[in-house]
Design a protein that fits this description.
It is a single chain. The chain is of the alpha+beta class and 164 residues long. It has 2 domains: 38 residues; 113 residues, no CATH class. It contains 2 helices and 10 strands, in the order E-E-H-E-H-E-E-E-E-E-E-E. The strands form 3 sheets. It has a 6-stranded antiparallel β-sheet. Strand 9 and strand 10 form a beta hairpin. 12% of the residues are buried.
Amino acid sequence: MKLMDEKGRLFGKINLFDLLVILAILAVVAGVGYKLLSDRKQSAAAQNTTDWVVTVKFAAVEPGLADAFRLDSQIFYDTDGPVNATIGTVREEPAWETVPTADGRLVLAQDPRLMDVYAEVNVKDANGDGLLKVGRYSIGTGGKFAIKTFYAYSEGVVISIRKP
């Protein structure tokens, strides 16, 4: 049996042009169906999001980190791209360090050149699995947290997690 007969029909049954039109129509219908279903899933996930404010402390860093965080609020990670978190308010305070005195005591003294930076990170958690995640990384109070933007990168410690 020939693949195409003298009239241009595939296996002697269907015209090649008709087959291409049918396949194009099926592709369009499948694409529209996929788009409708994926939009429903995204809207359902958006309805189940929970907003969190995570306060991160960056201890004894060079001045200017707070300004760099203010330049771009979108957090992204190299492997994930932009994630579900943005930088909110950022403040600087003088850094304090423990220094020994001449008589052997340890006292707190203000560092003349370093600053403590506090950044509030706004997180939209849509996982619904009981774990607060930024990108694919779980976070919790006392744990390390890295903030990376186009202008800055630093690792700090999560000091509080609260709902806004």
